[in-house]
Amino acid sequence: MINSKRLEDRITKLANIGKVGETGVSRLAHSIEDKRAMDLVASWMVEAGMKTEIDCYGNVIGVYEGTSPSLPRLVLGSHIDSQPRGGRFDGTIGVIGAIEVVQILNESNLTFERSIEVVAFSDEEGARFNKGLFGVRGLTGNLTVEDLLRKDSDGISRKQALENIGITTNEAFPVRYTSDNVFAFLEMHIEQGPLLESKELPVGIVQGISGPFG
């Protein structure tokens, strides 16, 4: 069983970074608040027994190594950046929940053949630069130099914003995930509406979702 107290405590601590009102957050991608959240999440990954890095896209990646690390890996995660006035659970539950799963495995001295990777994807929301899924596109080889040159409303490019928080970009755009080296990707997410509750259902399986592009 997961440690629900630890999970709740981490959700609260993360929600305090960029807190807005009682339940909201504002952690725009590549901001000082985003970097504080990244560092905190990275520290929890280490505590959970993972080898951890923040890559050239701003993704926070933790690896719980299996006995046969050459096998395609299981990837878990979500994002920790937010809309200008977002909710405390959106994205973060998928990251903190994944860390909790790995930490329980580590505390129980359980390992598997496959490695497990937990990722807090960089700029999933796209609120600041008007184009999201940045970290995912970087990890899968779908970025161009133009993505780094996109500017926010203050005229700051993404490249400069990343460098401002200590992340050195790499225009070679190294690829981490391919169809050959990922076994599966799982993400726990919240439903930001009343449908599941009204039907008294604890879990929903996504069958379709909007696909942002451009």
Topology:
Blueprint: H1 4-15, E1 19-20, E2 24-25, H2 32-47, E3 51-54, E4 60-64, E5 73-79, E6 86-87, H3 92-107, E7 116-121, H4 134-139, H5 145-149, H6 158-164, E8 182-186, H7 195-198
Parallel strand pairs: 5-7, 5-8
Antiparallel strand pairs: 1-2, 2-6, 3-4, 4-7
Helix pairs in contact: 1-3, 2-3
Overview of the structural elements:
The structure is a single chain. The chain has 214 residues and is of the alpha/beta class. It has 7 helices and 8 strands, in the order H-E-E-H-E-E-E-E-H-E-H-H-H-E-H. The protein has helices spanning 4-15, 32-47, 92-107, 134-139, 145-149, 158-164, 195-198; strands at residues 19-20, 24-25, 51-54, 60-64, 73-79, 86-87, 116-121, 182-186. A hairpin with a 5-residue loop joins strand 3 (51-54) and strand 4. Helix 1 runs antiparallel to helix 3 (92-107) and helix 2 runs parallel beside helix 3.
What attributes does this structure have?
alpha/beta
Short description, anyone?
By secondary structure, the protein is α/β, with parallel strands linked by helices. The chain is 31% helix and 15% strand.
Q: Which regions have little confidence, pLDDT < 50, spanning 5+ residues?
A: none
The side-by-side strand order for the widest beta sheet comes to 3-4-7-5-8
Number of strand segments: 8
Query: Order of SSEs, N→C?
Result: HEEHEEEEHEHHHEH
How far the N terminus sits from the C terminus, by CA atoms, comes to 42 Å
Estimate percent helicity.
25-40%
Structural class computed from helices and strand pairing: alpha/beta
Q: Which word captures the global form? A: globular
How much beta, percentage-wise?
Answer: 15-25%
Q: What integer value in Å does the Rg equal?
A: 17 Å
Number of discrete helical segments = 7
Mean pLDDT: 95
Largest sheet: 5 strands, mixed
